Amino acid sequence: MPGAILRAIWVSAVAGVMLIGALLFAIRDYDAELGSSLGAAAQIFLDALGSAWGQVALGVALGAQVFCGVAVVTAASRQVFAFSGRNKAIPGHRWWSRVSSRTRVPVNAVWLSVALGFALTLPGLWGSTVLNNVVSINVIGLLPAYAVPIYLRLRHRHDRFVPGPWNRGTAGPWYARIALVWITVACLVVIAPQGSPITHKNLPYAGIALLVTLVIEQLWWWGRRRAYDAPVATMSAAQAAWIQDEMV
């Protein structure tokens, strides 16, 4: 499975470059498409494919975004549920860790994820860069979380770190360094303003959202006296070993 994840990354990267390249080559009128009220990408589809096929392409793109949104809500609610139920690390954890007796789904955690995501788009009602900000928040929210275990793996590679059965051998530390540099550059790019002069309509608020999140987390950390509850075991050692064997 780790190999499949690794292959999925480069396949997705190649597919993304091909899609961006196709959009760039399909540009007919740069200034008109850039200033279109429909959005540049939508206008490129319509200009290059015509009204009928352009709408079909936009429908496909809309469907892909819906599936992406469902995946994001699933991942976010799963984390809310896990951190609430296992670690009690989120304010109101008793409420967010409840599971519906009818659907067997943590409905409260799902609705919290949806509500927070909706709240992050509200500034877009007064600006023109809401999509860029939402994407930036996703980047700056995910990548630093990935950076923490990568950094710890690199820092403790000579003492407490024990490599698993699937590893990159001596190349692993270099992969870790490259990943950390990339994460740093990507986070700086999404925080930086994307237009000049900066006004309330094009203000990048991804960094503000991250700062508010970190402040809330720090206050909660202090309120919990710098201690989270240990994770609650949800399976036996034998079950965990079986799952580990299946993943390798």
Tell me the major beta sheet: none
Mean pLDDT: 81
Taken as a percent bin, the fraction of beta residues is under 5%
Can you count the helices? 9
- Straight-line distance between termini: 7 Å
Pick out the low-confidence regions.
none
Task: Supply the helix-strand structural class.
Answer: mainly alpha
Shape estimate: globular
- Domain unit count: 2
Helix content: 55-70%
The ordered H/E elements are HHHHHHHHH
Rg (CA only) = 22 Å
Total DSSP E strands:
0
Keyword list:
0% strand, 68% helix, mainly alpha, 248 residues
What does this structure look like?
With 248 residues, the protein is an all-alpha fold. It has two domains: 11-29 and 42-126, no CATH class; 127-231. It is built from nine helices and no strands. Helix 3 (40-85) runs antiparallel to helix 5 (107-121), helix 6 (130-155) packs antiparallel against helix 7 (172-191) and helix 6 crosses helix 8 (206-223). The chain is globular. The relative contact order is 0.07.
